[in-house]
Amino acid sequence: VGGLLDRIAGASRRDAPLPRHATLAIEHARASKRPTELLSIVQATRGRVATVSRLRRGALIVATLAPLVGLSLVVWLSIRQAVKSDQAGFVVAGLTSFVADSVRSVPDTALAANPTSRARMNGALRSLGLLSETVRDTTTPIDTLRRQRRLAEAYMATALRIRARDTVMTTVFGSSTRDKRRRVAILARNRVVDSVTAREARILVDSVWKGRVPGNSDTDALTMIPLTMAVFSLFFGAIAAVLVGVFVRRGPFLRGFQLEIVTADGAPASRWRLLARNILNWSALVGCVVVLMLAQVLAATALAQAMVICAVIVLVWWLVAIVMSMRSPSRGLAERMSGTFLVLE
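Predicted structure:
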């Protein structure tokens, strides 16, 4: 019996270790004292699945990515609904931005020579078509811009006064501290608005602009906020996976699919080896961090190229990992690089 168990254990290492329950059964069988006890141990393993199927591995991949994709989709649908249901809030946010930007309608040569990281990032996103192109207004006379700014403030102080005073923001529009300070300042400057100015303000915003303030597009919110949430979800998932591997070894998905991570001898992988596996699984996201660091030195065009390269690297890395996982469910790319195997409990 001992020789037979040695042959079974040795043969299992050629492709992948035995399932965890089979490894434990062999250990218990070696320690058994009576044939009846050995027979009961062997019979307990009858009918149990011995290998990780492609269906199970694919389901594990889908379950891992589903919360990340689902969260981005929910955010996108929420923003889309917010634009429809809170049109007043969208207009308030647009007018607040217009008032702040109109004072800088003439190009600032110092700012153009030394753009901030945020300006470089926005320029790169515009180059990729993810943000609408904004053209700085240098043709409209300064007096006209000042008049439009005055009418925009008057519109906020009259037609949107209640919405502009709302301090409990229930949507994403104008919820930042800076926007709140700007709204308070605008309302303080326009405590009294005469009827002629209020009428001209309504004509400008409702008839001329048709509720779409220049320089503000609802498509930007529908694009950038879900995109930002998707990137945040990826980093959150990576950090959660690393922490789970360190503190509890297996997360809910591995436990739910009855999977265990082991070494070549069938023993459970150590926490440090699991840490290495999880870091390798999500290591492609390091490129995103590099892009954020390059935003401080690269021009918008070069930064856009770096973003495309980073996205391609991440997609190729995960595509190769998924293909390898489906071809060899017990040993994907991260398992091979970390010296581990994925087996059944």
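Summary: The longest helix spans residues 54-85.
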